[in-house]
Write a structure and sequence with these properties.
With 506 residues, this protein is α/β, with parallel strands linked by helices. It is built from 20 helices and 13 strands.
Length: 506
């Protein structure tokens, strides 16, 4: 760790890590070169200590220049957290909230923390004026709502801070508002240095053909609700939790309140400790739910994006993405909620139920943020499509399930090859699924004592069945969700009949 003793003075300051001190020096080098009318963007992963870094910047800047700093956030919770951190750096600050109409005491403070909408309203209506401001710091700078305030601070040095330098609005790229980007340590580097928890990622293939893209470029809430509230998806989610996270503190992200409520009902009926949280919960209710989540060892909290920023709970052991998103920023924010490290938590689990990992890559993978900042359109245009993701997916039977079928020599079945044979030999296309059902029935019978055990064992094949049905639907060019759902249900019925027949014949 590193700290410059000359900056400490008589006050007891927080000690900075090497990478934090290095990035602060880079930012101050730009500040010295361009002391005003310069917009700089700084990127650092969630959990890297962005608030610590800009709090130290505020402390050093106000002491050396005798000018003031304004810190902008987009949520009141972030205002409170930022103000507290600034105080720990001995920065005398004041929050400008809805109750503050004038700043008659502004000479008592060196820094002001404000929500963007509140400050914009005050400045637009000429209700207040902040004197001698030299720097503006924008937290979560990828949100475009901050742009409206730039005109009030045109002579200032503006520092935007974000984990993902990609605008929340594709039509308003960040390169239009910031002159350059400084990139901090990578996620993998922070993991290797012991600052972030190591992720273990599990992916569950999901057919997203029914999802629709909205005006904001992401999947609409309605189409997401239709997909993720259905019984098959709820069952898949519950099984994924039981396979990978049972007994662990788990955070579930959804795209829609109805989905989250349905998740709550599904897990509650299964006997698991779970609570639901969304933006309709009152402040006290929210505090009570988060306290319960913090103090309950194996708690499950299902929510609707409300916890993507300003929420820090290091005891989270698993993050479940029970939604698909086209937003790289949201992808990183959701997973980042589980990345805080503890002595008892060297790693955490990611359960992806929306093909997000296939779309964006691993959360801890290397990202060329400079290229994304300079050419966001190129990045968006080269994202893997949902159709391509689904077509390239190959189901691999998990090891624990394969053990249940240990007496079967071969558990794989090539749908495409069998379909090609039907064309070659003039067979019915449905014979592909019939052969697949025959193999699955034989696997269940070979590894069971009786028909009842075999039918129970067949439940373990749900993901394999879903995969085979999807591959078949691609082969026959009839891949609507309703048709696939019907095929899958029909497959299950015929599999149970085939298992019964095997034991009758025996």
């Amino acid at each position: 760790m590193h700290v410059d003793p000359s900056d400490l003075g008589e006050k007891k300051q927080k000690v900075l890590y090497d990478y934090q001190a290095r990035d602060i020096d880079k930012i101050f080098a730009r500040l010295q070169e361009f002391p005003e009318s310069y917009n700089l963007l700084y990127q650092l992963p969630t959990g890297g200590g962005k608030t610590v870094i800009f709090s130290e910047i505020v402390r050093r800047y106000t002491e050396t220049t005798r000018k003031k700093v304004v810190v902008l956030t987009h949520r009141i919770e972030l205002c409170d957290q930022t103000s507290k951190m600034l105080s720990e750096f001995n920065v005398k600050n004041k929050i400008i909230n809805s109750n503050v109409k004038k700043l008659e005491d502004q000479n008592e403070y060196t820094c002001f923390v404000a929500m963007v909408e509140t400050l914009n309203n005050r400045l637009t209506d000429d209700q207040l004026e902040i004197d001698n401001v030299g720097m503006v710091i924008i937290d979560e700078a990828h949100y475009n709502s901050f742009r409206k305030l730039f005109k009030f601070f045109s002579k200032c040095f503006i520092l935007g801070v974000t984990a993902t330098p990609l605008s929340s609005n594709m039509k308003l790229p960040m390169k239009n508002n910031y002159r350059e980007l400084i990139v901090g340590d990578t996620i993998s580097s922070l993991i290797n240095k012991g600052f972030l928890s190591k992720p273990v990622t599990y992916t569950y293939d999901v057919g997203l053909g029914s999802l629709k893209i909205g005006m904001n470029g992401d999947y609409t809430v309605k189409s997401s609700e239709d997909l993720y509230t259905n019984a098959l998806m709820q069952d898949k989610l519950l099984k994924a939790y039981e396979e990978r996270s049972k007994g662990k503190k788990t955070l579930i992200f959804n795209n829609g309140i109805n989905t989250s409520i349905q998740v709550y009902d599904t897990f509650y009926r299964a006997g698991y400790p779970i609570r639901h949280l969304d933006n309709t919960n009152g402040k006290q209710e929210r505090m009570d739910i988060l306290k319960w989540f913090k103090t309950t060892e194996n708690a499950i909290l299902t929510s609707v994006s409300i916890l993507t920023t300003g929420f820090d709970e290091p005891t989270v052991e698993t993050v479940i993405l029970n939604r698909a998103t086209k937003s790289l920023t949201l992808y990183f924010q959701m997973i980042g909620r589980g990345s805080r490290i503890l002595p008892s938590k060297p790693e955490f689990s990611i359960i992806d139920m929306g093909n997000n990992t296939a779309r964006f890559g691993l959360w801890s993978g290397d990202m060329d943020w400079q290229a994304i900042f300079r050419s966001p359109d190129f990045y968006y245009d080269n994202l893997v499509s949902d159709d391509e993701i689904e077509r390239n997916f190959k189901y691999v039977m998990p090891e624990e399930i394969r053990k249940e079928f240990s007496k079967s020599e071969d558990v794989e079945f090539d749908i495409e090859e069998e379909y090609a044979n039907t064309k070659k030999y003039g067979l019915r296309s449905k014979s592909v699924l019939e052969k697949s059902i025959e193999q699955h029935a034989r696997m269940c019978a070979e590894n069971s004592e009786d028909v009842f055990d075999a039918r129970i064992l067949s439940k373990l094949l749900d993901r394999d069945i879903e995969f085979r049905v999807r591959r078949y639907s691609y082969c026959i060019s009839k891949s609507t969700k309703n048709y696939r759902d019907w095929l899958q249900e029909d497959y299950g019925r015929k599999l149970r009949s085939a298992i019964n027949q095997i034991f009758v014949d025996d």
